[in-house]
Amino acid sequence: MTCDRCEEAARQGCRFCPGCGEPLDSCTLCAEYARQGYEYCGRCGRHLVDDGDEGKKDDHIVEKTVFIAVPCITALLVVEALCMLWWSGETFGWLASRTFNVFLLLPQMVTIGSISGGTLQAFWVFLVIAVLASCLLLAYQSRTVVDRKAPRYIERIKTAPVYWVALMFGAYLVLSIAISALEGALGYHIVTPEGLPTGTGPQAVFSYAEAAVWEEVVSRIIPIGIPMVVVAGLCGRRDCLRYLLGGFGMTRVALVLMVVSAVIFGMAHEGSWGAWKILPTVVAGLMMSYLYIRFGVHASIVFHFLMDYSVIASEAIGHELFSFIFILVAITGFVAVYGLFKYMREGASNIESMPVWVRDQMPEESNGSNLD
């Protein structure tokens, strides 16, 4: 007891003292209501499941650990975006005399045309705007993480897109290292393609931005978004075109399309990287497809940009500092892998209750945001 009102408030069955705000644990009926299987105490209103559920404590460990990586991920993303902007003018001029082959994934890469000159320069402007807009939208949707006074703050962390990007990125680092080590132990190695751009030259600046945006168009919007638009239209959704950009929530159809998209994405890398690149790329494809389905294409673009532009960020800030950030993220990645598989296990148990075609409501319709 910390003030002269605590004792009286406790006798009245209050959970908190109205004088000092101190929590009061004097309710004698909580245990009885919990024993009878109730979720709330009938006297003081305490949420009994939260107070006694060990699984929640485990969730909090995952969330707090992964959240440590969020500042590192944010800093790395800012550095990469600044690198893109810094060399955007040089890249714009370099593209005036270049040609870019526009491709689709069927699942192998198939060229459907080419652009050059002013059209290619306009395409570069589009790529820059798409990356920056995706980063800003992700930050806006993740604004809840800065409000530490919000109720159930720890629970709300995992509704933010930036948390899931950090979770997926850390888990991918660990899983890709593990897969590469396993393949190496078996005597197989991923072959780096000849001519893969490195450094901070215009070719690298353009190529990795193009991969982050255009590959998400051909790997997520085309194999997932377009079929979901058709499905939503057949289900009578008047807003079916909104499904094109993702963020519509998981259904059984979306789950199948997620796997198909990841396999297409993985197989498309076989021609230049070799067969042993397929598995780690499929893993990355599953992660980006989930981000696309749950939050929108901007989230998958940010994840893809974060991965590919690391090559340029490493040159820009120095290998030592870059390696330190990567090691820190990789350390939290071990917990991220545990959390990822835990969420997957929970999701698998909910497949039977999952909508088959489309959700009755889009995520932002049900709670005013796209965070849940």
- Total strand count, please? 2
Please give the order of strands in the largest beta sheet.
1-2
- Give the % helix: 55-70%
What structural category characterises the helix and strand content? mainly alpha
Please count the helical segments.
16
Low-confidence stretches: 50-58, 366-372
Spatial extent as radius of gyration = 24 Å
What portion of residues belong to β-strands? under 5%
Note the gap between the termini.
Answer: 38 Å
The helix-strand sequence is HHHHHEEHHHHHHHHHHH
Mean pLDDT: 86
Overall shape: globular
The total domain count is 2
Largest sheet: 2 strands, antiparallel
Could you please describe the fold and organization of this structure?
By secondary structure, the chain is mostly helical. It has 2 domains: about 1-50, no CATH class; about 55-365, no CATH class. About 65% of the residues lie in helices and about 5% in strands. The protein contains 16 helices and 2 strands. The protein has helices spanning about 5-10, 30-35, 50, 55-85, 90-95, 115-140, 155, 160-185, 200-235, 250-270, 270-275, 280-295, 295-310, 310-315, 320-350, 365; strands at about 100-105, 110-115. Strands 1-2 form a two-stranded antiparallel ribbon. α9 crosses α12 and α9 packs antiparallel against α13. The chain is globular and about 80 Å long.
